[in-house]
Structures are given as structure tokens and as C-alpha cells.
Specification:
The protein contains 4 helices and 44 strands. With 728 residues, it is mainly β. The strands form 2 sheets. It has a 31-stranded antiparallel beta sheet that branches. Strands 1, 2, 3, 4, 5, 6, 7, 8, 9, 10, 11, 12 and 13 form a 13-stranded antiparallel beta sheet that branches. Strand 20 (263-277) and strand 21 form a beta hairpin.
Length: 728
């Protein structure tokens, strides 16, 4: 809006420099002090009126800014400059400003522009009948129109625009304000606002109202949430978002952020005073204060050490689902959580080039239906790990490590574990191209148990164990005109301590582990500490990589594992039961941007029947974008003890250049139900995106579900998103 302060500086400085212009076909002059250049077809002085006039193809240049006009007049008595006829100002950043006429005084404090318009490099346009600059920082537009949509010659109606009787830009405050503003969609008035304001995108943060959230929910009725952003300081802010519901009491939501010299904190919280309610908004139970808080922080202690925390608390199991609170499973520290479990943690972490250490305190709260299971979930007070690595050059790498876990629970056993260990490995190329990788590891564990139903004497269990072995592979490479192929047979053999798994030791961290290709050739294929794969073992497999010159790539690895003795502590779901594992494989095909697919399989060791498959697919063609995940797990190898099969699909199909179709599906095939099923239509152009989605969910959690919802979203470039969130 400050039209003249930039480019017209060239005109004023050039005219006020008392430069003598000669009348010619192409007259020009330059002041060395201000480095202003003015060219025109004709320049002359009107002595009676005391005017300097430039006419015909007038062009003024100053510090990278260029102004062109049909006529330029400088009044030497009043020091006013007037540019008339097809006035165009080109800024160094590419912004263009247009006007029929511009006039300003010499100090650029006052002036006006008639028939003003502007176009920035990102496509934003603004226009007004009259633009005024009343002082150094105050600019106003009369009968203004603003949009970020690019306008075509054949179609002058933008997808959206704001029309205002008056628009003001206060440079000192960095604020835009509008009087009698109307939001138009495709030229149709939608919303009238008597007053509307927002900060300059290039200015510092400003306090003010954000776009509201409006929607309809079967649980809460009509919903209106109005956020207010409070910029407390350059380093902290608070967003206050009261929510009005027609069926239930209001909710207050708060978002707080603050940066410190060594770190930052983030909190999201809400509270209300209400009863519980079901999917239809019918209330029951006692009316009391309810709410939630999610937060995290991280702070640097030294160059090598930091500490942080994460907090997740909720007054009711279904509070987040009743009020559609997001962020339940975000990572807020060193550890992430499972769905419908809240994790609070405080931690410290340190590392350098050759050592690493961390320690955490973890507490869990279950939001699931089974209260007995919640009491049996252990809190870790604390959980710690440290490791030091040594580089022996040609003799490989070694490390020593220590770990501790103190687990307490309301129902069941408490346990304290302390572990110390060491490992060594190296890599050597043998004659003939064989690659040998010998390794060795050893560990000692000490357990203190309480309230644990064992038949052993005492509450202390100790064990020491180790494994030594070697992995040998033989990479075979075949270059080709169109494809290069690498085939690598791999075999691993190791000898370990016999029977390391004491029946008195509770299994805390190995319940859901499953052998796959990622650990197929490890000396100890069991992750975690409570279980260890001892005895003698052998693994064999083959890895293949094919790379086409066109960029297509295929990778695959498959194999199985043998053990000298059956360890009854391993169940069938772990794939470490018995003496022979199932066949495992992992395959991927990458066609570049259009298509990629990854698959993991587990085949029965006797019948080769498919026990498990996990497949993910990504598709990105010209008009189709989709991602899909399919899984199937047989009952025999399922950790839950029941068969599982399902699919998760998200897709977007472009029908025309502007219109698209959205489709999503999360289906439990084994349970014959759609957890979520959505279908939507949308419109998108360079300045806006509109989505209208119908969604059906058959998920049931106590008093909530099934549910239907209509989702409405409308995003405007530079203004943000309006519409509804995910309301049911």
C-alpha cells in the first residue's frame, strides 16, 4: 500500500536535485549523489507555472526500482510530484504496482494514487479506487479488493476475494484492518464482517483472533470454537480457544509455547465442567471438572547432554474421543506409545563420537476398557542405558554397555534388572571375494523380584551368557546394458550359552517380538533383555538387488533360521519356537515417483502356507495418488491369539484440472466392519482448496459409536483454513 515511498523516491530525488534537463528527442540526466536516472521523449520547464515536465515514455530508475508513466510533473514551489497515465512501478523483488495517477510531496509523507492496483510475485493482487498516504506509516485504500488468486484475461472473477469499503495498513503497528469487509467465493458474497484485521505477514507476531472452527457433531450438536492468539513476548505465546456446544457445556482449550535460551516447552490443555455423554449427546453420571493436558519440553545442558519431559494426562478414558482432541500418540520424548495408552516421561540423554547414554522415568495410563490390564501395566522408575565404543582399526570394533530397569505395577510383580555386557565385531574380505564378519557378545543380568509367583527359592535371579560366531557372504555382481544385478548368498553360524532363559524371570520386553529379515542373521535374534536366544544356531538366506538404468530398482532378501535346541520360553508368534523358524522374506519394487511396493512375508516351515503378509503400496500417477497397507496374520502366529486381516487406503483422484475425488478406507476384514470409510469431493486452484467429505465409522468404544460425519474444509491462500474439523 505504500506505493510512493519506494519507487517514487526516484522521481522526487531526481527533480529536487536541481538537475537541468535539455529538451531533446531522448533527454536524460543523473545525479551522482542519489544515483537517479530519468528518461523521457521530451523534458521541458514551464517557467510561469514553475514546473518541470517530462512527457512520452517517461522512465525513472532508483536503487533497482523502475517507474514508467505517460507524463511526469514536478512543482518546484510546492515540491510535489505527479505521475499520470499508465503509471507502472516495478519493485526489485518483482512486485508490480499500477495507477492512473499518483501525487506525493517531496518528503513522501502525504500523497494519493487514483485507480490503484498491485500484483506480487506470489500472485497476490489488490486494487482500490483511491489510495492515500497520510503520514510516514499510515496508508488507506478506498473501495478495496484483495485476493491471492491469479486472474486471467478471459476470467476476471477470482475463486475468492475480500471486498472492503476501507482498508488501512499501519506500518508502525504492522497491522492491516478492513471496514465493512465481505468474503466472496466465485463472486458470490458469503460472509460479511463489519471489522476485520490481521498482521502484516512480514511483521513481527501480533495478538488477535484466528479463524474460527464451525461444525456439527452428533455428540455435541452445533460447535463453534473461536481461537484468540496472544503474543505475550517474542519468545512465548498463548492461544485461548473457547468452544461452544449446543448439546453439552462449553470447553476451554489452551495452547502455550515458550522458548528459552537452552530449549523450549509446548503445552496443549482443555477443561470443562460436564457429565459424561454418549454418541447422541445424552448425558449421564456426575457433573464434574474434566480435561486433559499434553506437553513436552527439551533443554540443552551442555554440548553433549540434554534433558526433557513429556506429559500426557486425561481425566476420563473417552474424553479425547468425546471432544475430538488430537495429539494422543505424538512423540513427546525418547519413547513413543501404543494407541489408547498415555505416556508421561522425564529423561536425560547424552552422546559424543564414541559413547551414548540415556535415563528415563516412564509412567503409563490406559484409556482402554480393561481396568485389570491397566493395573498390570508397569511403570519404569527408572529405565537407563549406556554404551562406550572402541575402534581397534583392522581388528574391528568393540563396545561395553550397561542397562537398568526398575518396573513397578499396581497388580502383579515388580522387578529390578541390572545388566552389563560387551560385544565385538569386525569385517574382513577373504581370498576369492568372500566377506567374513566374526562377532562375539557376552552379558550378565541380575534380577530382584517381588510379588512374583515363582517356585524358586528367594527373590534374586542371576545369569551370565554369551554368543560367538561368524557371518559369511559371497557377493556376486553382474553388470548389464540395461540392468545391474547383485546376488549375495549369506550364512551365519553361532554357538551360545545353553538354556539362558530362567523360568523365574518375568517377560516384560519380549512379548510382541517377532523374527523377520531385519534380525535373521544376528547372533541373538531376540531383541530386549528378558529373553535371550542361546544354544547353537544357524541362519541361511540370499539377498538380491537389481538396478535398471532407467531408475527402477528391485530388492529382495529371504531365508530361515535353525537352532540346536527348543526353548519353551519362545512362543510360536515370536518365530523362534522349536528348532526351525518359518521362512521369512522382504521384497520391494521401486519404479520411482509413479509406483513403489514393499512386502514382508512369513511362510510356514512345513507347509509353506502364508502365515503372515504385510504389504504397503504408494502410487503417484498424473491423476491418481494413493497409499495402501494390507496385512494378514494367521491365528497360530498372532500375538493376540486371534486371526487378523485388514486394509488401510487413502487416495485422491484428479478428475479435471480443478476437481478431485477423495476416498479413504480403514477396514477390519476379519471382523467384517469398516473402522473408517470416507468419500469426498474437492476443488483446488492456485489460491484455494475446498473439500466436502462424508465419513462413516463403525468403531465402538463403550458408549461411543458407530457414527456418521460430514467434514467441511476450505483453505484460502495467505488467509488460512476455515470450516470444520473432524466432527462426528
Amino acid at each position: 500500500m505504500a506505493v510512493w515511498k519506494s519507487a517514487l523516491a526516484a522521481v522526487v530525488l531526481g527533480a529536487a536535485g536541481h538537475t537541468a534537463f535539455a529538451q531533446s528527442e531522448s533527454a536524460s540526466a543523473e545525479t551522482e549523489a542519489s544515483r537517479v536516472t530519468l528518461t523521457a521523449d521530451d523534458v521541458y520547464v514551464m517557467e510561469d507555472e514553475n514546473l518541470v515536465v517530462a512527457e512520452g515514455n517517461v522512465q525513472a530508475e532508483y536503487e533497482g526500482r523502475v517507474m514508467t508513466a505517460d507524463r511526469l510533473t514536478y512543482d518546484r514551489q510546492t515540491a510535489k510530484v505527479r505521475a499520470q497515465g499508465n503509471v507502472v512501478i516495478l519493485e526489485p523483488d518483482g512486485t508490480q504496482r499500477f495507477a492512473e495517477e499518483i501525487e506525493t510531496d517531496a518528503n513522501l509523507a502525504n500523497g494519493y494514487a487514483v485507480g490503484f492496483s498491485m500484483r506480487t510475485t506470489d500472485g497476490t493482487t489488490a486494487s482500490a479506487n483511491l489510495a492515500r498516504r497520510e503520514n510516514e506509516t499510515y496508508n488507506s485504500l478506498e473501495r478495496a479488493v484483495f485476493t491471492s488468486c491469479e486472474l486471467c484475461e478471459e476470467d476476471t472473477t477470482p475463486t475468492w476475494a475480500i471486498r472492503a469499503r476501507k482498508a488501512v495498513f499501519d506500518e508502525e503497528e504492522g497491522m492491516y484492518s478492513y471496514r465493512d469487509a465481505v468474503l466472496e467465493i466465485a463472486g458470490v458474497p458469503i460472509i460479511y464482517l463489519p471489522y476485520f484485521a490481521h498482521p502484516d505477514p512480514q511483521a513481527e507476531r501480533r495478538s488477535g483472533f484466528l479463524f474460527p472452527t464451525v461444525g456439527s457433531s452428533s455428540k455435541r450438536g452445533f460447535v463453534y470454537q473461536q481461537p484468540y492468539f496472544w503474543a505475550i513476548s517474542p519468545y512465548q505465546d498463548l492461544t485461548v480457544s473457547p468452544m461452544i456446544n449446543s448439546k453439552v457445556n462449553p470447553v476451554m482449550e489452551l495452547d502455550y509455547r515458550k522458548r528459552f535460551w537452552s530449549g523450549q516447552v509446548n503445552f496443549n490443555a482443555s477443561f470443562t465442567h460436564e457429565q459424561n455423554f454418549d454418541s447422541d449427546g445424552e448425558t449421564f453420571g456426575d457433573e464434574k471438572w474434566r480435561g486433559h493436558i499434553f506437553g513436552n519440553g527439551k533443554f540443552r545442558l551442555t554440548n553433549n547432554w540434554l534433558w526433557g519431559f513429556g506429559v500426557e494426562k486425561m481425566s476420563d478414558d473417552l474424553y479425547s474421543r468425546r471432544y475430538d482432541i488430537d495429539g494422543e500418540n505424538e512423540q513427546r520424548g525418547l519413547y513413543t506409545n501404543q494407541p489408547r495408552l498415555l505416556l508421561s516421561q522425564i529423561f536425560t540423554q547424552g552422546q559424543s563420537a564414541n559413547w551414548y547414554a540415556d535415563a528415563s522415568l516412564l509412567t503409563f495410563d490406559s484409556l482402554r476398557f480393561d481396568d485389570a490390564r491397566e493395573d498390570s501395566i508397569a511403570d519404569a522408575l527408572p529405565l537407563a542405558f549406556a554404551e562406550r565404543v572402541f575402534d581397534f582399526g583392522d581388528y574391528g570394533y568393540a563396545s561395553v554397555n550397561a542397562s537398568a530397569a526398575y518396573l513397578v505395577r499396581d497388580a502383579g510383580s515388580d522387578s529390578q534388572r541390572t545388566s552389563v555386557g560387551a560385544d565385538w565385531s569386525m569385517s574382513k574380505v577373504l581370498p576369492g571375494g568372500f566377506l567374513a564378519e566374526p562377532f562375539a557378545e557376552a552379558r550378565f543380568d541380575h534380577y530382584d523380584l517381588s510379588d512374583f509367583p515363582t517356585e524358586g527359592e528367594g527373590d534374586t535371579v542371576e545369569r551370565g551368557f554369551g554368543t560367538a560366531g561368524m557371518q559369511v557372504s559371497y557377493p556376486l555382481f553382474r553388470p548389464g546394458k540395461s540392468v545391474d544385478i547383485t546376488v549375495e548368498p549369506i550364512i551365519m553360524g553361532a554357538v551360545g550359552t545353553s538354556g539362558p532363559n530362567d523360568s523365574d524371570i518375568p517377560i516384560e520386553d519380549g512379548d510382541f517380538y517377532e523374527l523377520d529379515t531385519s534380525s535373521l542373521f544376528d547372533g541373538n535374534a531376540q531383541a530386549g533383555y528378558d529373553l535371550y536366544e542361546g544354544d547353537s544356531k544357524l541362519a541361511a538366506g540370499i539377498s538380491t538387488v537389481a538396478r535398471w538404468k532407467s531408475g527402477v530398482q528391485f530388492t529382495g532378501i529371504a531365508g530361515r533360521r535353525w537352532r540346536s535346541r527348543n526353548d519353551p520360553r519362545f512362543d510360536e508368534s515370536s518365530n523362534l519356537d522349536g528348532t526351525v523358524s518359518d521362512w521369512v522374506g522382504a521384497f520391494s519394487l521401486d519404479l520411482g515417483n509413479p509406483f513403489s511396493i514393499q512386502t514382508k512375508v512369513r511362510l510356514d516351515d512345513d507347509t509353506l502356507e502364508l502365515n503372515r503378509v504385510d504389504t504397503s503400496l504408494d502410487l503417484n500417477l498424473n491423476r491418481v495418488k494413493a497409499s495402501a497397507l494390507y496385512y494378514q496374520i494367521k491365528e497360530d502366529v498372532s500375538a493376540s491369539g486371534s486371526p487378523q486381516e485388514g486394509i488401510l487406503l487413502q487416495s485422491e483422484i484428479t478428475v479435471t484440472d480443478n476437481y478431485f475425488v477423495l476416498y479413504g478406507l480403514q477396514r477390519d476384514i476379519e471382523g467384517n466392519r469398516d473402522i473408517r470409510h470416507s468419500l469426498g469431493l474437492g476443488y483446488q486452484d492456485d489460491c484455494s482448496r475446498f473439500e466436502l467429505i462424508f465419513e462413516r465409522s463403525e468403531q465402538i468404544d463403550r458408549q461411543l459409536g458407530p457414527s456418521d460425519s460430514i467434514l467441511f474444509r476450505f483453505s484460502l491462500k495467505t488467509l488460512g483454513q476455515v470450516g470444520s474439523n473432524n466432527f462426528e
